[in-house]
Amino acid sequence: MKTIRIGSGAGFAGDRIEPAVELAEKGDIHYLGFECLAERTIALAQAERLRDPDAGFDPLLVARMQAVLRPCAARGVRIVTNMGAANPLAAARATAEVARGLGLAGLRIAAVTGDDVLPLVRDGDYPLLERPGTVAGLGERIRSANAYMGADGIVTALRGGADVVITGRVGDPALFLAPLIHEFGWAADDWGRLGRGTVVGHLLECAGQITGGYFADPGYKDVPGLARLGFPIAEVAEDGSAVITKVPGSGGRISIATCKEQLLYELLDPTAYLQPDVTADFSGVRFSEVAPDRIAVRGGAGRARPDTLKVSVGYLDSFVGEGQISYAGPGAVARARLALDIVRERLALTGVATTETRFEIIGVDAAAPRPPRDPLPELPEARIRVVGRTDTMAEAVRIGNEVETLYTNGPAGGGGAWKSARQVVAVVSTLIPRALAQPSVSYEVA
Amino acid sequence: MRLRELAHARTGDKGDTSQISVIAHDPGDYAYLAEHVTTERVRAHFAAIVRGKVTRYELPGLGALNFVMEHALAGGVTRSLALDPHGKCLASVLLDIDLPDRQRPPRA
User: Fold this and answer.
1) Which end of chain B is more exposed for a tag (fewer CB within 10 A), N or C?
2) CATH class of the domain defined by B3-74+84-94
3) Contact status of A219 with chain B (Cβ, < 8 Å)
4) Which residue in chain B has the smallest CA separation from A284?
5) Rounded to 10 degrees, what is the CA torsion of A363, A369, A374, A376?
C-alpha cells in the first residue's frame, strides 16, 4: 500500500533550521513543509514589498533554502512553504538564485499567488469579525488583505512538476494536505479524506509542538533532548490515516499526550474546524502507540467546505510605549508597587495621552492574571512593566521615559531600566465569497 | 488536589479568543474532570481577563475538555498590550484550579 511521508520543517518564522536538514537527510521523506507565516507578518511584509519589489518575503527564506535545497534535491524531496508572505514571486526568484549558487540548475520553483485581495475588499462593506465596523471603515489605515487560500494552487504547482512550491497566505494545514491530494488523487469533495488529511496537516503545522516542544513540565511531563528536538514526520495512507514519528535518535518525544495537545491546539468547536478545503471534524480522532515515538492516528471526518474564505486585514492600529525596571532584596515588591504608583501619577501630571494602559509586576501579575485582592507575595526580585497605547509615536516615547527616570527619581535600588516605543500594525479578520480569490501559479527555473 | 495532578493543558489563540485544552493524564479521570472543571469554574478563574463568552466542548473519546474564551486576549494577539499577548501561559495557570480530593479506585 502506498504511503506518503511528509516532514514538517518549521512551525513559525523564526524556528530552528537544523531539524529541517535532519528531516531532509535522514527522514526518508517525500515532502517537506514549512509553516512560517504568522497573522501579522504579511501586513509588515506588504510594506516592504511596496518599498522594494524584490522584498516582502520571509527574511529567513534564503537561509532555510541554503540549508535544505541540496539534501532535498539529492533525494527528490519536494518542498512546500508559505514563506512567500507578501511576495511569492520574489521569493521564487530568490530561491532560484540560491539553487543556482548550489549548482542545482534546473530546479523548478513555483510561486502561488492570488491571496492578495486588498484591491477587492478595501472599499467593501465586509463586516469585521470579533468587533464592530467594516473593512472600508479602516480607511487609509489599511495595509494588507490576504485570503486564507486552499490547497488547490499548491496541487496545481505539484502537478506542474514543481520541486519547490512557495505560497503567500494559505490555510496552514493546506501546506500538508496539498501533497496528499496530489499523490492520492483525492477528489475536491471527498470530505472524509480531506478532513483526515486536515487532521494530519494540523498535527504537523507547528513542527516541534508535537514532538515534545511546548509540552515539557518537569516531574509531570518530561521530554528528553529538547535542545536537539526532532521535527515530525507523518506517514500517511491513502485513506488519510497516519503514523506520526520522527527521525530515530533525534531529541524530543512523540506520545499520545503530545498528539492530543497538538490536535486540540487552536481549535474552537472540535466538530467544525473551518478550513478553505473542508470543514473538518476532529472529535472522532483516536491515537494509539504502535512503538516508541510512533503514534497511529485514526478517525476524523469532514463536511462540505465553507462558502466563504477568511481574510486577514492588516492596518495601522496605534502606537505602544513601554518601560521596565527591576527591584531586588527585602521589600522588592513594595518598592515595585511604589514605582508603579509614581509612574501612574507622572503620566497623569505630565498629560501623556493614552487610550489603554497596564501597570504590572513581572513575576506577580504580568503573565498570570490574578484576582485583584490577592495579597502581594514577598519575592527576591520584582520587575515592573508599564505599557500604554497612544495615537502618536511622540506620546508613546514618553511612557518609557517616565519609567527610565525612576533611576534617579524613584524608589531605592531600581536597576536595569529598559524602554521601547513602536508602531502597531494589527490584524482583523473578515469573510469574503470564495470566488473572489483564485490561485494562480507561475514557475521559475534555476 | 490541583488540576495539574490529573490533567495536562495547552493554550492556543485565534484573534481575541483564547482556547485551552484540558486533557486527562488517565482517561479514566475524564468523568471526574467533566464534573468539576466546569465552564463556571474556568470563567471565575480567568475573571480578570475574560470579557466574553466561555464555551466548553467535551471530547470523551480523547479524555479531554476544550475551553474557548472569547474576548480574553486584550483585543487580540496583534494589538494586545499584555506581556504574553498569545496567552500561552494561561493553560498552566488553569492547572492551578483546586479540585476536591479524589479517592482513586484500585487498579485492576
Assistant:
1) C
2) alpha beta
3) no
4) B61
5) 20
Q: Rounded to whole angstroms, how far apart are CA atoms A285 and A291?
A: 19
Take residue A172 and report the three cell numbers written for it: 496552514
- Looking at the predicted complex, does its ipTM rise above 0.90? yes
**Cβ burial, residue A220 (10 Å; 0-12/13-18/19+):** exposed
Contact status, residue B61 vs residue A283, Cβ threshold 8 Å: yes
**Grid coordinates of A154:** 499548491
- At residue A376 the predicted structure's pLDDT band, cuts being 50, 70 and 90, is confident
- B108: confidence class by pLDDT, cuts 50, 70, 90: very low
Q: Are A274 and A306 in contact (CB under 8 A)?
A: yes
**CA A240, A242, A246 angle in degrees (round to 5)?**
145
Residues of B in contact with A268 (CB under 8 A): 14, 17, 19, 68
Searching chain B, which residue's CA lies closest to the CA of residue A129? Answer: B15
Interface probe with B: pick from A41, A130, A418, most Cβ of B within 10 Å: A130
Predicted pLDDT at B106: 55
Domains of chain A plus CATH, in order, are: 3-114+149-306 (no CATH), 313-429 (3.30.70)
A264 and B89 in contact by Cβ < 8 A? Answer: no
Cross-sheet strand order for the sheet of B7-14: B7-14, B17-24, B64-69, B54-59
Please identify among residues 371-390 of chain A the ones whose CB lies closer than 8 Å to any CB of chain B.
Answer: 371-372, 385, 387-389
**Burial classification of residue A128, based on how many CB atoms lie within 10 Å of its CB (0-12 exposed, 13-18 middle, 19 or more buried):** middle
Q: Structural domain boundaries of chain B? A: 3-74+84-94
Name the minimum distance, in Å, from the CA of B95 to any CA of chain A: 12
Interface of A with B in 23-62 (CB under 8 A): 39-40
